[in-house]
Amino acid sequence: MLKLLAQIAVLVIAIEHVYILVLEMFLWNKPAGLKAFGQSQQMADATKVLAANQGLYNGFLAAGLLWGLATDNREFMLFFLVCVLVAGIYGGLTSARKILFIQALPAAVALALVLAAG
């Protein structure tokens, strides 16, 4: 049961990062992206290429988590959850405090579940 909960948590984190990829790569300067990141149209237009690059990295995080799930590779899941956690802490401390709750906290919970599931 614990392993299933851990897998669900990892899947949720992966889906979240696919969503972030879409926001950053395709919707950054559209209404959904502007609202999600609280930016002006001018700022979003000026940073669109940077955001797309950032979105690609979020896609790599999602891909690693999904690969870990598909292959039942605990080490892959742990590695990519730690990457998400570190990115979430860094983002929360340097960009927006809400990132701690949106990205870092869920990653920490999933990491704890994967560790506990053995």
UniProtKB/TrEMBL annotation:
Source domain of life: Bacteria
Positions of transmembrane segments: 6-28, 49-70, 76-93, 100-117
Record keywords: Membrane, Transmembrane, Transmembrane helix
Cited InterPro entries: DUF1304
PANTHER family: BLL0914 PROTEIN (PTHR38446)
Protein name: DUF1304 domain-containing protein
Species: Variovorax dokdonensis
